[in-house]
Amino acid sequence: MDFNFKIRLLGFYNEENQRMDEEKFKKEEAKLLAELLDKSFSEIDSDVDTSFVTALKGNGVFIFRDAKYNLYAYYPHKHLAKITEVRYNKKVINEVDLNYKEWFVPGHPFVIKSTSTNVVNFYSLTKEWTLFGIDKNSVYKSWNDYFIKLGKSTYAIDYQEPIDIAELRKLILHKWVCLDERDMQSECGDCDGWDYSGCDMDRCREDCDGCGGRRYKCNNSCFNIRNRVAVVICYRSEVVKQDLSEGFKILYEIEKPHSIAADNLWKQYQGLLKSLLEDCKFIQRHLGNIEIMDGFMQQYSSASWLQAKRHEKNPTIEIKCRFSGVKVDSYLISEKGISIRIKYDGFLFWRKRYEILSFKGYDYYSDSFVKKEFKLEESKNERRIEQLINKQKSGQLRCLRLTKGREDYWNYTFE
User: Fold this and answer.
1) If we measure between CA atoms, which residue out of 397, 351, 354 comes closest to residue 377?
2) DSSP string, 233-262
3) Tens digits of residue pLDDT in 291-328
4) How far apart (Å, rounded) are the C-alpha atoms in residues 42 and 50?
5) What φ, ψ does residue 314 adopt, rounded to 5°?
């Protein structure tokens, strides 16, 4: 038999201690089909669907059909296939989502359409990861609650704020978001079932029987009571971290003092950076403050600000002051606001000399006015301090690093 025709997956059986007998009649054709399907399923992404991958790596039996409705079975655990006596029971089989029903030729890659913009990432109570396709009618509102249809099941969505259905659907379909199925009774925390918002808080809470201000809410007025099982909208931390890591690296390069490549990087990746920024704003608008997203937004703002300042007529100098431990204060001051001067100590022969670094003016990092003064290290090498002063006067100084030294002195390096 020539298997140069397309088949598609219908579903799979994955019972405990399950097995499949070998093909009895068309043994050579079945052996060839098994080899081809082994090749087709050799590179399945293990992060796609927990139940699907578990069946594929365990004792799952997968059922396919061709365009003429002929059935085929595949048992990857033993590298077996069947062409005859294949049984398909729609009531018992684990049906797969439409994303898994793409037509393919045995021997060619089995394609899962995980890139669809209408795919929801679903994490069940049984800790299984599944992808569900939804349409424009899958998300809806009934009374005060929002609902979503996933496959054959309908779930309440634990989202209490007013939101347009189209916006909620957009949020659920975002690549950084998943739906986490939860037992809502376990979400009650330390709630004792009473609403104290109408109480006179000047009275002792323990005297509630004589107050009458509290209201019992552990009834149908509570979302957790109305919906014993619901889905919570969560962000996918690993996906967010992976997507933002590239953005962080680019911003780090742009923020480097006197970065020659900053302009090219900014022009090349501005589209990507803006897209990540908008994603962060959108997710945080609905799910609240998320540390890694907030950090990216701050770093983007800083890099954008610095990039603009680099093209102003007044050059800036970056000053980094490292104290003991890891504490670092950073300033970005206009070149005109910085001065370095030599002073002398002692009365006999003025042998001892030291330098004072002072700066005052607008700090582009903190968006505020600053005024600082540092006593630099005693100069045993006069040429070094002269190099620093000449570099600053000629407008070539771009970064000065100060590290706390002995007593009141600061060690310095510069670019």
Assistant:
1) 354
2) EEE-HHHHHHHHHHHHHHHHHHHSTT-TTH
3) 999 999 988 888 887 777 766 666 778 888 887 766 77
4) 16
5) -90, 110
What is the rounded distance in angstroms from the CA atom of residue 341 to the CA atom of residue 354? 9
What's the CA gap between 323 and 253, in Å, rounded? 24
Region label for 258, one of left (φ > 0), alpha (ψ between -120 and 50) or beta (otherwise): left
pLDDT tens by residue, 364-375: 776 677 888 888
Q: What is the DSSP string of 14-72?
A: --TT---PPPSS-HHHHHHHHHHHHHHTTT--TTS-HHHHHHHHTT-EEEEEETT--EE
Which value, in Å, is the radius of gyration of the alpha carbons in the chain? Answer: 33
Residue of 338, 308, 325 whose CA lies nearest to 400: 338
Q: Are strands 129-133 and 71-75 parallel, antiparallel or unpaired?
A: unpaired
**Cα(33)–Cα(106) distance, rounded to whole angstroms?**
7
- The stretches of 201-236 forming alpha helices (DSSP H) are 223-226
Query: Can you say how many angstroms the Cα of residue 355 is from the centroid of all Cα atoms in its chain?
Result: 48
Task: Name the nearest CA neighbour of 337 among 280, 382, 397.
Answer: 397
* Structural tokens at position 3: 């298997």
pTM metric for this prediction: 0.49
Segments in 132-221 forming alpha helices (H): 165-172
Phi, psi of 329 (to 5 degrees): -105, 130
CA–CA gap between residue 340 and residue 316 (Å, rounded): 15
- pLDDT < 70 regions, the chain: 1, 45-51, 113-117, 186-194, 197-221, 223-225, 257-260, 310-314, 325-326, 343-354, 366-367, 378-382
- The partner residues of 401 in beta bridges, in order of sequence, read 320, 413
Residue 282: φ, ψ to 5°: -65, -50
